[in-house]
Design a protein that fits this description.
Largest sheet: 8 strands, mixed
Subcellular location: Cytoplasm
Distance between the termini: 92 Å
CATH architecture of the largest domain: 2-Layer Sandwich
Keywords: Carbohydrate metabolism, Cytoplasm, Hydrolase, Magnesium, Metal-binding
Order of helices and strands: HHEEHEEEEHEEEEEHEHEEHEEEH
Radius of gyration: 21 Å
Structural class: alpha+beta
Number of helices: 8
Low-confidence stretches: none
Enzyme class: hydrolase
Shape: globular
Strand order of the largest sheet: 4-3-5-6-7-8-9-10
Strand content: 15-25%
CATH class of the largest domain: Alpha Beta
CATH superfamily of the largest domain: Fructose-1,6-Bisphosphatase, subunit A, domain 1
Oligomer: single chain
Cofactor: Mg(2+)
Catalytic activity: beta-D-fructose 1,6-bisphosphate + H2O = beta-D-fructose 6-phosphate + phosphate
Number of domains: 2
């Protein structure tokens, strides 16, 4: 007589929580033969700071840390209390981690030299994008780029270590603080997204191998500046309206980009009469999102050329940005180039 072992079905009682960010990073270390664990640790440091900022953001309305602090940053923008808090949290995490020699932050006028000459990496970061939306409980985010330093380790940091084109990024990502908190990043081997499980204090892989739709029917732009746009931008948006595309604009770059990355669409922040060079910063906003976009099969340009081919000339250099589904960005470029040809 055969005896069958009793194996009760418990699948309905407990679900798999999946792969943690830490385990995922470790499994991908072989993608970097030149690294010996520093980049992996650096990504963990960023994830730790993101958890702390997530906590601060979630209790902003209860702890009197919403609202403006009364200062302006180098961009001439009013600093929010959480801008300063996020900047401190990420700077501390990257300093204590020991892998970074310098930081470029939206909130600081100059390069932050961490006095760590053995650090192999430079981080460019917008600690809290869209922070003016905090008081009205709208999604905000963090954007970061990671570069390998050019000068030899052991020597003082130099300007050329920081002023690198986006094509030299070794990693980039963003954190979205919304209805759920997500960390999305790339190291040049595809894009993966992780959702934060607060009760466990861990990021879990929730969006593996993210791929942007090739086309879409959503455009994201501040239409209040319509009269200040170049003719090519106005004509493209008019065409989108004629096609009955949907206009979706949150006003938080990370949130707008994330939606279009998942569902298809284009985000545009063009040059205007007020900001002829655009408003978004090349080093710590446009480059990072452009790297992610391209790794997900999307496209990012300034309207005329690839974002990651632009050689920066200043720390807080601004650029127009056209980013999203490949077909939509290419078409928007064609409108701009057509107008340029007519003018010439």
């Amino acid at each position: 007589m055969k005896i069958k072992a009793y194996t009760p079905d418990t699948s309905h009682l407990a679900y798999s929580v999946g792969v943690t960010l830490d385990r995922f990073i470790k499994s991908k270390q072989d993608d970097f033969p030149y690294a010996s664990g520093e980049l992996s640790q650096l990504l963990r440091d960023i994830a730790l700071a993101a958890k702390i900022v997530n906590r601060e953001t979630n209790r902003a309305g209860l702890s009197n840390i919403a609202g403006a602090i009364g200062n302006t940053n180098v961009q001439g923008e009013e600093q929010q209390k959480l801008d300063v808090i996020a900047n401190v949290r990420f700077t501390r995490a990257l300093t204590k981690g020991g892998e970074v020699c310098a930081i470029v932050s939206e909130e600081d006028d100059e390069i932050i030299d961490l006095q760590n000459s053995s650090g192999k990496y430079v981080v460019a970061i917008d600690p809290l994008d869209g922070s003016s939306n905090i008081d009205v409980n709208i999604s905000i985010g963090t954007i970061f780029s990671i570069y390998r330093r050019i000068t030899p380790t052991g020597s003082p940091i130099q300007i050329e270590d920081v002023m690198q084109p986006g094509s030299q990024q070794v990693a980039a990502g963003y954190v979205l603080y919304g209805s759920s908190t997500m960390l999305v990043y790339t190291t040049g081997h595809g894009v993966n997204g992780f959702t934060y499980e607060a009760s466990l204090g861990e990021f879990f892989l929730s969006h593996p191998n993210m791929c942007a739709p090739k086309d879409g029917n959503v455009y994201s732009i501040n239409e209040g500046t319509y009269l200040d746009w170049e003719e090519g931008v106005r004509r493209y948006i008019d065409t989108c309206k004629e096609r009955r595309y949907s206009g979706r604009y949150i006003g938080s770059l990370v949130a707008d980009f994330h939606r279009n990355l998942l569902k298809g669409g284009i985000y545009i922040y063009p040059s205007t009469a007020k900001n002829p060079k655009g408003k978004l910063r090349l080093l710590y906003e446009a480059n990072a999102l452009a790297f992610i976009a391209e790794q997900a099969g999307a496209k990012a340009t300034n309207g005329m050329m690839r974002i990651m081919d632009i050689m920066p000339s200043s720390l807080h250099e601004r650029t127009p940005l056209f980013i999203g589904s490949e077909t939509m960005v290419a078409e928007a470029e064609s409108f701009l180039q057509e107008v340029t040809v007519k003018v010439e």
